[in-house]
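Hey, can you fold this one?
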Amino acid sequence: MNRSRLISLDNQGLLKNYVLGSDGSIQTVATVGQAYGSLFGTAFLRDAQGQVIVNDDGTPATNPNNKVLGKYTPDWLGGITNTFTYDHITLSVLIDGSFGGRQYSSTNATGAYTGVLASTLPRQGRSPRRTLLLLSGQ
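Sure. Predicted structure:
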């Protein structure tokens, strides 16, 4: 398992967060006490049972406070390689995998916001959805 926890960002302990990258709506952040490479941004508003709250127009309500949405680093990495040689011919084979972690797609977020994705089509009398897509590797 790939588990990380950021201990410190500077010797004095003054820095608590450092933005590694951003696309405007989602940030990749190094935060003391969190897993390295946490994704930070807008989350859906949820009730006490953890269910997403839906607005009157059918869109999910967003939390006014940004939240940690996950981390981009995989939970597990693995691979195997082998090399076969016969006479003057060599064949190398590599199989590797990465499992877990989360990815954020700006393309899907823009497509959902502008209404060009099939997922934004009205369904059963509901208005089009305007949501951000967070893909899970799990």
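The chain has one helix and eight strands. Let me know if you want another pass with a different chain boundary.
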